[in-house]
Specification:
The strands form six sheets. This protein has a seven-stranded parallel sheet with strand order 9-10-8-11-12-7-13, sandwiched between helices. Strands 6-26-30-27-28-29 form a six-stranded mixed sheet, sandwiched between helices. It has a six-stranded parallel sheet with strand order 16-21-20-17-19-18, sandwiched between helices. Helices cover 41% and strands 16% of the residues. By secondary structure, it is α/β, with parallel strands linked by helices. It has 34 helices and 30 strands. 49% of the residues are buried.
Length: 981
């Protein structure tokens, strides 16, 4: 007859000890190895296998360690925890260490029965991490069972990678290119959204009628929407015409998804307003219908909104949990290493005589075409207008783009009406901040009226082809100089172009021109989103494989990389080769590298413009200088209203056709006929800036006070440890394990290690996380204090896989005295030190808790672990217990004299024999710790009484004593009896 085991109890089976999990039944035990992770869970059938009760063995007096043994064992244990007992169930099991400010949306979410949040933090703060934290926590607590992320197809692979690598969520991609394969694996009548619990879905794909209906019917209980501002449209008369049909389709989809009041919904966007108040209201209505009609001028309205809306800029979180945030001191202060500033410079170039002549003739052709079309009718006039803009933009981009455009028929030429011509032609010129798709936008547009370009255009194309190369292309020559200077100063630049032919032309022309140690790659819309990421990773890998720190990466890219893709780990400078016709596009480009995780304190930005091409100078003068001034005044970037940008660029082209390339010396604002329109543009832009400024102050995050965040951060760090502890552990453990460690002590905290001399078990574990070649060749492994690491590096955070491998080896070798080779941590130790005045004993105790966690879907039973240090003075039978801080301080005590071997054995034997006398206190401490954990769970969810009703935290007895360490005074004081000495 088999025994019945309670959740949290220990059993022995298959040659090791296990913890019984709540999912167990009388005929099947679900077990997790003692000290193991969720990945090691196994099912055991007592009827067929030998299962017996087990007790955690006490330490052995024959296995003594040195003064560092306790600290190493404690940290190794805590790093290995993947099921913490605190209110955040997921923090111990994710591969990223969130910043304190990133916990704010999580705290807001946990106070809602159904999570509805609009997260509008500034670009680069980490909205993906914030959303991932919430998703992982809701899944871990059982509050959600399925997840869908709606995003641009260009960002789908990045979302998949972030969720898998950082949060352990393996999501399936649902894209136009994958749906056929996925549907072939379905059973009759089955939805792919039912079969695959975690999906990342292209918003362009899902808006089609067939797939939209299937998604709505089988929609998961947790939905994340990235770039949510592209999924709503303005509904007022003035702005409705500019709203795209795609936005309307997405809005209708989300309106139906959000209609289920029990569905969790996270909306992410850095630009919730975009200058459109009605669109912002529609966005709020998706969060909660009543939010769309709130009186945001009233304190009550803003307080209600604050429960669901968080919007912070970098200045708000660069230094967080300080005295300025209302805390008593800076002990928990966190400083986030955003680049301090962007070094920005406008670099001009002048056309060569041959290029000037070509551009003058192109402008003359454009003028004639527009005048001729104007006599033929409105449709012909609009087709000519868009064709001319395509011609001029390509001409100032590069000879390669010019040739392509001159030989290709204009897309707008197929239009049947003037309106259709505008719909087809507008994307060529807009560079819209709210462009609903970047795919295909980098293709060089056509300028010809028919399939066969006329003789005049073919002549221009032939002349453009002869201008290839730095001899006649002054823009290319200038770029080469700028890149050489950036490379010489140690930068890895990205060069952004408007068109695919320009990017390919630059990659070809620059090859071999930037020095032997420059590696160049091009990424354009000709590659799929996955291939783009692979090309970037390949460039990074090639530069790293050389092992030469002087190797520099240069990426040539179109705007297919200007949104969403994170490039801060590989690049630190941006060159705008082609001037966008909307400054917001430049912000998006720069935001790829100027974000959290960037190692450089200052990101370099160079904007190239043609001083004498008749276009760039005026766009720079009117749009960019105004944009920069607003950003300087507000401290944030305000999106340029699309109507404003297109109004300016239309005026620039009209002015160019009227005056020619040389034009008038007057400013655009001084030209007759344009003053009224420019006054209107100025008012619109100032109004948008004022709305953004008002919203940032009115709707600032006030739902969670920093003091509340500080309390939870302190609890998390107490349970899981902090960065300094991890660094010290890695340094000491690697040295003790015979790795060759080099610590430059340069203030950065970084160090390197070669693992060639380490035990084979550790080398194998590191090879699995860092790469076999790195370990086989015994190359230096950089360990960095920042999470921004490259391939083959380790981050000094507890969730880094390399740190986890080291911790697992240290813990396993400490528990197994038969492990061959060095064993840094031991379960016992005796130290003679001047840090104590009386015999003091430190215990490392592992507690297990049985948690009952209520949720919307019912109660969950969970077994969690926690490690604590307890210390007492004197003999076990008359122990005087010390507080937690004093106990932890013993870890830093160092030996001040040698301890005789026999004395050490006597002392540790006495301590081990006295463990039964301590059991009552250990039990009492576990009960007190359970009460504290119960209070913490209730505090985090204080606004949701339904969720905390039925919450229980029960300690599992007995606690496991992992380590016993005795500290002896160097010279016992006179009041100490002989027995205690």
């Amino acid at each position: 007859m088999s025994l019945t085991y309670t959740a949290g109890s220990l059993v022995a089976a298959r040659g090791r000890e296990w913890v019984v999990l709540p999912e167990s039944a009388s005929d099947m035990l679900v077990l997790r190895p003692l000290g193991g992770s969720e990945d090691d869970i196994a099912a055991v059938f007592p009827t067929f296998e030998d299962v017996r009760p087990a007790e955690f063995a006490a330490p052995s007096s024959a296995d003594l360690g040195d003064q560092r043994a306790a600290g190493l064992l404690r940290t190794a244990l805590r790093i290995g925890f993947r099921s913490g007992a605190g209110p955040f169930r997921s923090l111990a099991s994710i591969a990223v260490e969130p910043r304190a400010y990133q916990l704010v949306p999580l705290l807001m979410a946990l106070r809602q029965r159904t999570v509805r949040l609009l997260v509008s933090d500034d670009v680069g703060i980490g909205k993906t991490v914030e959303a991932g934290l919430i998703a992982k926590e809701l899944l871990a607590q059982g509050e959600a069972t399925r997840l869908a992320v709606l995003c641009s197809p260009a960002l789908a692979e990045q979302w998949q990678s972030e969720l898998r690598e950082k949060f352990g969520i393996d999501a399936e991609l649902v894209l136009a290119s994958t749906v056929s394969r996925l549907e072939r694996g379905l059973e009759l009548g089955q939805s792919l959204f039912d079969k695959h619990p975690f999906t990342i879905i292209s918003t362009d794909f899902i808006k089609s009628t067939r797939h939209r209906e299937d998604f709505v019917r089988h929609c998961p209980d947790l939905v994340i929407v990235d770039e949510a501002h592209t999924c709503v449209a303005a509904d007022d008369a003035a702005q409705g015409a500019a709203s795209s049909a795609s936005n309307q389709l997405r809005y209708e989809l989300l309106r139906r998804v959000s209609a289920d009041a029990d569905r969790h919904l996270l909306l992410l966007t850095a630009t919730p307003h975009s200058g459109k108040e009605s669109a912002f209201r529609n966005l709020l209505g998706l969060v909660r219908p009543e939010l769309a009609h709130l009186d945001l001028e009233s304190a009550a309205g803003r307080a209600k909104l604050a429960e669901h809306f968080v919007a912070r800029k970098r200045a708000d979180v660069r230094e967080y949990l300080t005295k300025e945030d209302g805390l008593a001191d800076d002990s928990l202060a966190e400083r986030t290493a955003f680049p301090s500033d962007r070094w920005t410079k406008d670099e001009k170039y002048r056309l060569t005589p041959a290029y000037r002549a070509l551009l003058d003739d192109a402008i003359a052709y454009a003028r004639d075409r527009v005048e001729r079309a104007g006599e033929q009718g409105k449709r012909e006039a609009r087709i000519a207008w868009w064709s001319v803009i395509a011609l001029l933009r390509s001409m100032v981009s590069s000879p390669a783009a010019a040739v392509q455009t001159l030989k290709t028929r204009s897309e707008s030429a197929t239009a049947r009406t003037a309106h259709e011509a505008d719909v087809l032609g507008a994307p060529v010129a807009s560079d819209s901040a709210d462009n609903d798709r970047l795919e295909g936008m980098d293709v060089a547009p056509g300028a010809a009226e028919t399939e066969d370009a006329g003789a005049r255009l073919l002549d221009l194309a032939q002349r453009a082809a002869q201008l290839v190369g730095p001899a006649e292309d002054a823009k290319l020559k200038a770029l080469t100089g700028h890149l050489k200077k950036l490379i010489a100063e140690g930068y890895h630049p990205i060069v952004f172009c408007r068109y695919i032919p320009t990017a390919e032309y630059l990659a070809e022309q620059l090859e071999g021109k930037l020095g032997k140690k420059a590696k160049i790659a091009a990424v354009t819309g000709t590659l799929s989103p996955q291939q783009r990421l692979e090309r970037i990773e390949q460039l990074a890998a090639e530069s790293a494989e050389d092992g030469d720190p002087a190797v520099r990466r240069v990426l040539i890219a179109t705007d297919c990389l200007s949104e969403g893709v994170n490039l801060q780990h590989h690049f630190d400078a941006v060159v705008h080769y082609d001037l966008a016709w909307n400054p917001t596009r430049h912000d998006q480009r720069e935001g790829r590298v100027d974000r959290y995780g960037q190692k450089r304190d200052q990101v370099r930005v160079i904007t190239m413009f043609g001083e004498d091409n008749g276009i760039d100078g005026k766009v720079l003068e009117v749009l960019f200088q105004k944009h920069r001034q607003i950003k300087k005044d507000l401290g944030i970037s305000v999106s340029v209203p699309d109507e404003t940008a297109s109004g300016v660029t239309d005026a620039v082209v009209e002015w160019l056709l009227l005056h020619g390339r040389q034009g008038s010396q007057e400013s655009l604002f001084d030209l007759d006929g344009h003053q009224e329109s420019f006054d209107r543009i100025e008012r619109e832009w100032n109004s948008a800036a004022e709305r953004e400024k008002t919203s940032r102050s009115k709707y600032a995050q006030r739902a969670i006070h920093p003091e509340e965040v500080a309390r939870e951060v302190a609890a998390v760090r107490a349970a899981l440890g902090g960065a300094d502890e991890v660094r010290g552990f890695a340094l000491e453990a690697l040295r003790d394990l015979d790795a060759l460690v080099r610590d430059p002590r340069d203030g950065s905290g970084d160090f390197t290690a070669q693992a060639g001399g380490a035990p084979a078990g550790l080398r194998d574990a590191l090879a699995a996380t860092l790469g076999g070649r790195l370990i086989e060749e015994d190359r230096e492994i950089p360990f960095r204090t920042t999470p921004a690491i490259a391939r083959g590096e380790g981050a000094l955070v507890r969730t880094d896989p390399a740190i986890g491998a080291i911790a697992s080896y240290v813990l396993d070798s400490a528990l197994d005295a038969n492990t061959p080779g060095p064993r840094p941590a031991r379960r016992c130790g005796v130290v003679t030190t001047d840090a104590v005045g009386i015999r003091t004993t430190l215990l490392l105790v592992r507690y297990r808790f049985h948690l009952t966690l209520p949720s919307r879907t019912g109660e969950r039973q969970v077994v969690a672990e926690d490690a604590r240090l307890l210390a007492y003075e004197g003999m076990p039978s008359r122990a005087r217990w010390l507080d937690d801080d004093t106990a932890a301080a013993l870890l830093s005590a160092r030996a001040s004299a040698n301890t005789h071997e026999q004395l050490a054995r006597n002392q540790i034997t006495r301590a081990l024999d006295g463990l039964p006398d301590l059991s009552a206190h250990l039990t009492e401490y576990g009960t007190r710790l359970a009460a504290e954990l119960d209070a913490s769970h209730r505090r985090v969810r204080k606004a949701n009484e339904e969720i905390v009703r039925g919450l229980k935290v029960v300690p599992q007895e007995p606690a496991d004593v992992l380590g016993v360490y005795v500290y002896l005074p160097q010279q016992p004081v006179s009041t100490v009896t002989g027995a205690e000495a």
